[in-house]
Write a structure and sequence with these properties.
This protein has 230 residues and is an alpha/beta fold. The protein has two domains: 153 residues, 3-Layer(aba) Sandwich (Rossmann fold), CATH 3.40.50.1000; 67 residues, Putative phosphatase, domain 2 (DNA polymerase, domain 1), CATH 1.10.150.240. Helix content is 46%, strand content 11%. It has ten helices and six strands, in the order βαααααβαβαβαβαβα. Strand 4, helix 8 and strand 5 form a beta-alpha-beta unit. Helix 1 packs across helix 4. It is globular, with a radius of gyration of 17 Å.
Length: 230
């Protein structure tokens, strides 16, 4: 029986993959690197540092530590500017999160920075719904490696033990993702998986092993999670 739900952040809660791509494209162009849509979406699952290293390697350009820090800072500033006016949350996600939090322990497992995650969730007044938040600084390898979900699982069980609750098993946790690397990471951690077609096609998500694929979290309730996964 599902007792906890772990959510990816970008592409599941916040509809900002195109915004991330725009921010990176503008910043990298200033370093004489062109970023195509195919380039961006082929690197899903990487954290910011991994993405920038990948972009410079693809362009056969040297990347010093100083330039890496500069690109990350520029991208962070531009991304914040692009979402300042209106926070682009996916339809139905707030309703689903608030309902799920009354029945399940919730966690964020993302390769985004903690600052990026907390900024958006605080603006949406959603941060308090999550028992644990895993960000890019918590792991040394990115999705599809399962490490990030294992860290989230361990953090959640630490909180449960502190509250004198029985620890959970991995198969009592549901992962909600939007990319094949994310689905593979959740499966690698022994968790159940649901994919949302916010970023890539249903075919790609099913090929990655997603148990269930949906078009929108707006179509889901706590009861539907229970009936499908329990």
């Amino acid at each position: 029986m599902i007792q906890a739900i772990f959510f990816d952040f970008n592409g599941v809660i916040i509809d900002d993959e195109p915004i991330q791509m725009q921010a990176y494209s503008e910043v990298l162009r200033g370093h004489d690197i062109e970023l195509s849509e195919a380039d961006y979406y082929s690197a899903l699952g990487l954290d910011d540092k991994g993405f920038v290293r990948h972009a410079f390697k693809r362009a056969d350009k040297h990347l010093s530590d100083e330039v890496l820090k500069l690109v990350l800072k520029e991208k962070g500033v531009r991304h914040r500017q692009l979402i300042e006016g209106e926070l682009p949350l996916f339809p139905g996600v707030v309703t689903f999160l608030k309902a799920a939090a009354r029945h399940y322990s919730l966690g964020i497992v993302s390769m985004a920075t903690l600052a990026e995650i907390e900024y958006a969730l605080n603006r949406a007044r959603l941060l308090k719904l999550f028992s644990v938040v895993v960000n890019s600084a918590d792991v040394s390898v990115c999705k599809p490696a399962p490490d990030c979900y294992r860290v989230g699982f361990d953090k959640l069980n630490e909180k449960r033990r502190a509250a004198r609750l029985l620890p959970l098993l991995p198969n009592e946790c549901l992962v909600i993702e939007d990319s094949p690397p994310g689905i593979e990471a959740g499966k690698g951690a022994g968790m159940r998986t649901m994919a949302v077609t916010n970023t890539v096609t249903e075919r790609e998500l099913r090929a990655a092993g997603a148990e269930v694929v949906t078009g929108s979290l707006a179509d889901w309730t706590v009861d539907s999670v229970h009936h499908v996964f329990d």
